[in-house]
C-alpha cells in the first residue's frame, strides 16, 4: 500500500514513514542517499513511499494539475460573523462559486446542459482571516480524475498583500443533469478538467 504525505506550502519538510521511522532513517539503514531538506516555495510537493520503505519518489504538485482559474470577490457585510471576520461557511461558498465559474467559463454549452456536479467531500484549512473591505482572489484547478470523481483544489488569497487565507481540496462527482445519477464525462471534458 502506498502512503502519501501532502506537505503544506512554505514549510520545511522531513518525510516520515508509516512504521514510525523517518524516511531519512530508513534510507540510512539501507545505505541510500537521503533526500535533502528543502524549503518549499511556490509549489506544494508530495513525498511518497511504500509501506516497506522500498520506493521513494518526489513529485511537483502543480505539474499534476490543470490550468488554474481565478476570480476575485469582495467581502460583504453578510460574510462577517460575530468575531468580526469572514465566517468559515463563506469560504465553502466561495469554493463552490469559483468551481462553478470555472465550469461555466471553460465547458462547452452541451456539456453544461448535460452534466451537473455534486460534492462528495470537502477538506478545508483556514490560514488567516479575511475581514470587511478585503478583496479575495479565488484560484482553483482540477487535479486527478477517476472514473466518477474529480479532485479540485482551491486557494484563497487576500488581494492587497497576497496572504494565503484558506485552501481546500474537494471531490466532485459528475451527474446526469436530467436523472441526477452519476455519469462518466466525455473525453473532451476530461481533457479540459483533469491531468
Entry keywords:
single chain, three-stranded antiparallel sheet, elongated, Thiol Ester Dehydrase, Chain A, alpha+beta, 195 residues
Describe this structure in words.
This protein folds into two domains: 2-63, no CATH class; 66-193, Roll (Thiol Ester Dehydrase, Chain A). The protein has four helices and eight strands. The protein has helices spanning 23-29, 88-106, 109-114, 187-193, and strands spanning 2-6, 45-50, 56-60, 69-74, 115-126, 135-145, 150-158, 164-176. Strands 4-6-7-8-5 form a five-stranded antiparallel sheet. It has a three-stranded antiparallel sheet with strand order 1-2-3, with no helix packed on it.
